[in-house]
Write a structure and sequence with these properties.
alpha/beta, TIM Barrel, two-stranded antiparallel ribbon, 12 strands, 41% helix, 18% strand
Length: 329
């Protein structure tokens, strides 16, 4: 990322007019990512969060090309750590599975397929844990998909990414520190710390972020204040409550960083934030943003049916415009 692009991204954040589409940290479905980026970039989205795979970055770039976008769009890849739900995949133990079909019916990402037995389509599994939580036989395990940062990051950086998001959701301080240093040593662009309150209390949470920011220049980092990961399918205040509370925690800490709300976010997120006096610089929406356009994404004529594309863009634009309206000064 060159200095001009970093300045432009910072300007977008400082104006509080930044909406990020979360395609899914575990979403390895290149076709879906290409379609999502095409649709949401047409709707005005400027920031996209992607699975940390070179082929997924390529898919996002194809989406921008299809939308006729040549500049002012930013690509971020998400990398995780052992224990982070965003990098887990469901695995079905065939010896325990009784083929009841509950996992297939409950999966919001169509990641469970039925062949001779029920199996997980790895590239579509986002690690939401709904299948594992509902399996009556405990036949589904969530397994972390770890990466070697020293090997993987250079390949991603070579693709021309604009941001790396580090999911620091872990109790292991040593592992967090080591991975954070590796990222900083290899990438000099915007970094994002994705963190929630699931593992640490408020004091330790702030101490961790303060320590991570201490090796960064002021305002070259985004703090992604997560609520409950992958819980925003419903457009309700309750699902976004934890995200607003976490953002408030970091806002009150006055760290030299931008604040982004995520995790359970929807059209109510910035409205609730405004009511609570919370002023994020960016809103990231994943599950809800994908859900509201799903019927159009899966169509065979997605790229050729102009009428349906216009309808889908209108839906996406309404989400973006509604969110940004509440963030304006």
């Amino acid at each position: 990322m060159n200095k001009k692009e970093l300045t432009m991204l910072k300007d977008l954040l400082e104006k509080r007019q930044c909406f990020k589409l979360v395609c899914g940290a575990g979403n390895e479905d290149a076709e879906e990512v290409e379609r999502l980026v095409t649709l949401y970039s047409k709707a005005g989205c400027m920031f996209f969060d992607l699975c940390a795979k070179p082929e997924i970055v390529d898919a996002a770039k194809r989406g921008l090309e299809r939308a006729g976008i040549k500049e002012n769009r930013y690509l971020c890849v998400s990398v995780g750590i052992d224990g982070d739900p965003h990098i887990t995949k469901a695995v079905i133990a065939q010896t325990k599975c009784v083929k009841c079909g509950k996992c297939k019916s409950i999966c919001p990402h169509d990641a469970i397929i039925e062949l001779d037995k029920y199996k997980v389509k790895k590239e579509r599994c986002l690690g939401c844990t709904q299948c594992a939580n509902q399996c009556p036989k405990g036949a589904i395990e969530m397994v972390s998909q770890l990466m070697d940062y020293k090997d993987a990051l250079p390949k991603l950086i070579a693709k021309g990414i604009d941001c790396i998001e580090f999911h620091a959701i872990s109790e292991d301080e040593r592992d967090v520190n080591e991975k954070w240093l590796q990222i900083n040593e290899q990438f000099d662009g915007m970094l994002c710390i994705s963190i929630d309150r699931s593992e640490l209390g408020d004091r330790k949470l702030k101490e961790r972020v303060k320590r991570m920011l201490s090796i960064r220049e002021p305002y070259t980092t985004i703090i992604q204040a997560d609520g409950i990961a992958m819980s925003g399918s419903n457009d309700e205040f309750g699902t976004t409550l934890q995200s607003v509370a976490t953002a408030q925690l970091f806002q009150n800490a006055n760290f030299p960083a931008y604040i982004m709300m995520s995790g359970g976010t929807n059209t109510k997120s910035t409205e609730l934030a405004k009511m609570c006096g919370v002023r994020p610089h960016c809103l990231a929406v994943g599950s809800y943003a994908r859900k509201i356009v799903k019927e159009y994404l899966v169509r065979d004529d997605f790229y050729t049916n102009e009428e349906n594309m216009a309808k889908a863009v209108k839906i996406a634009k309404n989400l973006i415009d509604t969110s940004l309206e509440n963030m304006r000064d």
